[in-house]
């Protein structure tokens, strides 16, 4: 096990070209599981290759256990990598694929046999050791690729989108296997994916990337419950957060965010105190609320429901997604299948006042609550009303 730290790492492919990585700062403790997540082209695989030594960095430092490995060759970094394409030797048996790296390190034959047996037991592939990769399923090939990395017992494991070539059911099964494996081995791991479900379920820490920049770094729950900006809020969560454009209007010592559903209704709600910040009056902002945080049954004290017509329903099994329109924007509500309405039915909605977030409409940055001192002198009640 080993700590991993990146200090101001950047990567450029030449003058005149935009940096692929821009001042990456990350630190994970020994034994932690780090997820690098983001859309295609965000730089996550490039960052993975830089950690492995497959690509050189243009500046900054990569430290393992406090030692700078930036200038070392890949073979000297004591890092094992599992590729998206498996990268197995087609003419070798499963056993020889797993043992290949150990032979290159001139390990004794008896020790190699013992290590191959250990890894095969761990991954439950003892019955496959004599087969060639072409005789294996995608999931079996991925297990062999993982076995080859496990046999080295490195300081750090790197996984580059290892499940993207598998079907949905097998992906879920392998995700569970990887998590169980990490819990048993406790080896520091960096895992690249574009799948935010993998990011939320696998990682101890998550780094959300966009255009070579880390937008937010934290635990899965921190990123889900407290996104730093509009991009993070939209990328993490399935179904994604609802974003409703509103224009805050002053009225006395309060602010109003008009909502139009096509029905005459009114909703009272305590918005985040960021709405009371200086200069926010008359400003267009984005109101964010997750589907599960929209209540679809009236009755919460102090809140008046807003009526909206159901336009689409999408049963998913454990939940039913219900879509309505607010401010000419499709809004998704997550409901129990037993309470699901019909298309065309008018339902009453209430927003959870503790979960509403506000974002700047231009920059996408989160509007944060006022400090405690300022908050004491500000009104913490804002009314949302329909037109």
From TrEMBL:
GO BP of this protein: carbohydrate transport
Residue span, ABC transporter domain: 4-236
Keyword ATP-binding in record: yes
Protein name: Glucose ABC transporter ATP-binding protein
InterPro entries on file: AAA+_ATPase (IPR003593), ABC_transporter-like_ATP-bd (IPR003439), ABC_transporter-like_CS (IPR017871), ABC_transpr_MalK-like (IPR015855), ABC_transpr_MalK/UgpC-like (IPR047641), Mo/tungstate-bd_C_term_dom (IPR008995), NA-bd_OB-fold (IPR012340), OB_MalK-like (IPR040582)
GO molecular-function term, one example from the UniProt record: ATP binding
SMART domains from the UniProt entry: AAA
Keyword Transport (UniProt): yes
This protein's UniProt keywords: ATP-binding, Nucleotide-binding, Transport
NCBIfam families according to UniProt: PRK11650.1
PROSITE patterns, A to Z: ABC_TRANSPORTER_1 (PS00211), ABC_TRANSPORTER_2 (PS50893)
A Gene Ontology cellular-component term: ATP-binding cassette (ABC) transporter complex, substrate-binding subunit-containing
